[in-house]
Amino acid sequence: MILTKLAYKSLLNRRASVLLTLFTIAISVMLLLSIERIRVDAKTSFSNTISGTDLIVGARTGDIQLLLSSVFRIGHANNGVSWQSYQYITAQRGVKWSIPISLGDSHKGQAVIGTTRDYFTHYRFGKKQTLSFQQGHAFERVNQVVLGSDVASRLGYTLGDSIVISHGMGNTSFHHHKDNPFTVIGILNATGTPVDKTLHIPLAAIDLIHGGVHSSNVEHGESDEHDEHDEHDEHDEHDEHNNLIGEPNQITAFLMGFDSPLYTLQIRRNINQYKKEPLLAIMPTVTLKELWQMLAIVEKVLLLFSGVVILVSLLGMLTTLLANLNQRRRELAILRSVGARPWQLFTLISMESLFTTLLGCLVGCGLYYGVMLVSSSYLQSHAGISVNIAMLSYYELTLIGVIMAAGFIIGLIPATRAYFYSLSDGMSIKT
User: Fold this and answer.
1) Are 292 and 105 in contact (CB under 8 A)?
2) What is the mean pLDDT of residues 265-281?
3) How far apart are CA 408 and CA 383, in angstroms?
4) Residue 120: pLDDT band by 50, 70, 90 thresholds?
5) Interatomic CA distance for residues 143 and 162, integer angstroms
6) Which candidate, 29, 65, 235, 244, has a CA 20 to 30 Å from the CA of 13?
């Protein structure tokens, strides 16, 4: 107990150098924990984005590029898939369901996806969880839009609001489809996936907004002799125009589910050998594994970098302790003269290094949570990574334990020198 108080007062007496060492350790701990959490949550976010989908089909390109563009809204698809090919492939035996998607438009930097109502029925994320509505329901007319939860909260939209879609996927667009506004009809619950940052419109609306046709511009007759039927004809054609009808010329990609894994492998081979146009079918789970294998070297480099920073901070602590030790020889001699034994001085120096490392880890954990709270929304909106701000995992606690152990071991070096100093000083005192 006395040694603990003495170590505490000794640290306060040298607070300038101690604070500098403590801050260095805290930064390294924060960096290590942040890299580890982002690494784990990035894998989880990507893996949870899509589940229960057997194949993703698009124009022939790289496997990873097709996955990123069609599911994660990262990058762009170079070509599309003709509607005729989509109908032919999805009519094959063993196909349980299919979801066509069309990309290429945006709203205030958020991706717009054209699809069908099957999207809300068959799309799965996480552990095969279905999409659910926070408010409203799926679109029923061509001029309706369903928002992801993040789009609604970030832009402040509610049911009934009017939205104008822009051409292109960037944050800045010079072509807005003002003639064809969409009405918010539904808002999805949060999923922690790119769905939250997406606006969903009917597939039939894609050709409508790019064709420049609007329901108010549909002509209903040219002769005045049919005036008594104009109101009735206008009502019929308006309803026909707003129903989810029509077939696009092409789509960006489509998702497929099958009755059996055997059908998955067979149809995948047939698609990759399709003669009418160059297509590519990928299995999302397999492609995700390939993606992580490619990024494995990046993970190792990041962990190595954070490890080096921790090592440098601990070596800095060692340098500070050794430099101060020469200045504290008089202090150690006084303690020795009043009855302190060499092992007690050894314990005192060891406790000082241990306390410094412990405080550095605690401050580093605080900085880590602060950084995660500040950057979580940015990571979600710009990288699609849903950061889980929770208690430290067993592995993260193990990392902190390793740092504590390393700090204690490094502290043994100046403690050992203090021990021998005390022996020599003790002998000189006796003589």
Assistant:
1) no
2) 93
3) 38
4) very high
5) 10
6) 29
